[in-house]
Design a protein that fits this description.
With 210 residues, the protein is α/β, with parallel strands linked by helices. The protein is built from 9 helices and 6 strands. It has helices spanning 16-24, 32-42, 57-70, 89-106, 119-126, 137-145, 162-165, 171-179, 196-205; strands at 47-50, 82-85, 110-113, 132-135, 156-160, 186-191. The chain is globular and about 45 Å long. The termini are close together.
């Protein structure tokens, strides 16, 4: 499924508050994956999307997540509303880099949780009330098991590089984490490839997806 050609972010129903930092950070016209995915995500639909590295895949889910957060009440304390799961610390860093500049300009709090960083530091940052987490499965499971955070208010889950997250090495952690989340949520799968043997497993995670 793909829409007609879209020439500007203004055509994607992103609010003026979000469009301003996009212009300042040098975002021009949406890439094809952004033009395809952003309207689906903003409509609240589940999504399975394939896009190669370098096509703007990260912004295709980051921008609508931030838009959704802007529409939520901003009273303190702010619960965790969105979660991006990634397989590696390196990818977590890349997603955070795409998020941070725009999120800070909007007054939204994000946090990256992954191994290689002292857990005490991450616990202190959790206390500040991030609304969006970028996390690797192992570190997130550890913190949830220790009751350092909760996901009862989660509204949107993204599996980035879903083909890797659905492999057997990650699957036990993913299953455990899914059981810690609300069943009523929006779920988005993004991947450069999705082997046929994983497609049925992926579909089981989604509700009437695009």
């Amino acid at each position: 499924w793909c829409p007609m050609s879209i020439d500007s972010f203004a055509e994607l129903a992103l609010s003026p508050r979000l469009q301003q930092p996009l212009r300042e950070l040098g975002y021009a016209a949406p890439t094809p994956i952004q033009a395809s995915a952003i309207p689906v995500i903003l409509a609240g639909r589940d999504l399975m999307a394939g896009a190669q590295t370098g096509t703007g895949k990260t912004a295709a889910f980051v921008l609508p997540l931030l838009e959704q957060l802007l529409q939520q009440p901003q009273a303190e304390p702010r619960p965790i509303r969105a979660l991006v799961l990634v397989p590696t610390r390196e990818l977590a860093t890349q997603v955070n880099a795409a998020l941070q500049g725009v999120a800070e300009a909007l007054g939204l709090r994000t946090l990256t949780l992954c191994g290689g960083v002292p857990q005490e530091q991450q616990q202190a940052e959790l206390a500040l009330g991030p609304q969006l987490l970028v996390a690797t499965p192992g570190r997130l499971r550890d913190l949830l098991a220790q009751r350092r955070l909760g996901l009862s208010n989660l509204r949107t889950l993204v599996l980035d590089e879903a083909d890797r997250l659905l492999e057997m090495g990650f699957w036990p952690d993913i299953q455990w984490l899914l059981n810690a989340m609300p069943t009523e949520r929006q779920t988005l799968l993004f991947s450069a490839t999705l082997p046929l043997e994983l497609e049925s497993l992926a579909i089981d995670l989604l509700t009437n997806p695009i």
